[in-house]
Amino acid sequence: MIEVVAKLGRGPVFLAGEMLECVITFTNPLSASSTSASRAETELIILVFCPQERVWEEVCSEMLAWASAQIHCQFHASENRVALPPSDGSKPDVQAENETVFVPNRGERGQCILSTPPKILFCDLRLDPGESKSYSYCETLPIDGPPSFRGQSVKYVYKLTIGCQRVNSPIKLLRVPFRVLVLHGLKDYQCPQDEAVAPSNPFLEEEEGLKKDSRLADLATELLMAATSRRSLHLYNISNTRGKVGTFCIFKTVYKIGEDVIGTFNFSEGDIPCLQFSVSLQTEESIQEEFQRRRGQPVSFSTHARHQEACLHTAQSSFNLPIPLSSTPGFTTNIVSLKWRLHFEFVTSGESARTCMVRGSQSEAITWTGVEQIEVDTFSWDLPIKVLPTNPILASYVSQFSSANSITI
């Protein structure tokens, strides 16, 4: 028995273009102390047939023929919503008992749309009882791939697959799922011209790959800060067919996942009283026209946060909607497009503000009572916003994926 443990050192979330590093440890958990009794019995048998203690060691050691690792992105689409072209002559997913071909997406649903070249970790590994050996796997994530996404119509799932095989035994696969965020525009800045003269710390010895990966993460952080820190006042008049309801104010429309969307309302200058409003933070998932199952099929909406408030006789109000770190920033591929928006719903009075309250008595202490029935009008409004990725280390804190995965062979 051999235990295989794969651990992502920095966490399970990465930016496209970054380097993924995984340490894979192979351990023979059978210790010498736990097998002393069985060793004595084995030695008696060996002394009769072949009086060499090394024969016992070979019996207790574990052997692996080879191990290989590869990253792939699996795509799955809903048959009721997406019409995909037929795939080109795919081979049947059958594995023989003694097959040694490494297919990382074997048994997975959907199509493998992206994969890195496989890398061999070792050949003919022998582990004595209690012995462990670790191997480091490093690979740069393709910068032009899609982001990780689990929607109502399509799914993009990234996995690192480690394949191991004993001699004359079937292949065992250890899959390590992880999340990929895509920052558009990062590809154009991946290799700056002044890279050779970039400032560095002479007291730190870093590998060239790690330096490049660190520069890429720092560059992504700078681009995100520049795009999301710009603030300018955006004012919108809220009105229906009967007149003005109020104004809405927001200071920016570009955000990172993990930020809060903050907006304010001013109903003091409105002609039509607003009884209630609600604001929903939503994503709009739409399939490209050529891949739609039926013409003109509706888009899919998902609500991530919502604020609702009764606001009769309220002069000003506000809302604060957090963008979940686990959500997917906006993106577009040849099959699907994901956009973000704020969806507003307003309930206004069909009467003037004075008739919304009635006087209860004529005594000195005046009591005001709300009316039992009132005519209302409802209308909605959508405001598109842009949502970008964030620092992958921050997103790792709330990731559903584990940094370490294991399997027993």
UniProtKB/TrEMBL annotation:
Pfam hit, one: Rgp1
GO cellular component: cytosol; Golgi membrane; plasma membrane; Ric1-Rgp1 guanyl-nucleotide exchange factor complex
Transmembrane segments: none
One MF annotation (Gene Ontology) recorded for this entry: guanyl-nucleotide exchange factor activity
Any one biological process term the GO annotation gives: negative regulation of protein catabolic process
Protein's name according to its UniProt entry: RGP1 homolog, RAB6A GEF complex partner 1
Organism of derivation: Gallus gallus (Chicken)
Lineage, opening ranks: Eukaryota, Metazoa, Chordata, Craniata, Vertebrata
